[in-house]
Write a structure and sequence with these properties.
48 residues, 81% helix, rod-shaped
């Protein structure tokens, strides 16, 4: 494998891995938001 082929392969694997990790993190965030939904503080709403 020459230098250019190795460089392009490494770059594509790096970019693909980054996108995969970001996708997994977004799924994890969505799951956490479903498990722990946002609730407003009722005392703060009454203050006004």
């Amino acid at each position: 494998m020459d230098t250019w082929t190795f460089g392009w392969t490494l770059a594509l694997i790096g970019m693909g891995g980054t996108m995969l990790i970001l996708w997994i993190l977004s799924l994890l965030i969505l799951l956490i938001r479903k498990i722990f939904p946002y609730q407003t503080d009722k005392a703060a709403v009454k203050k006004g």
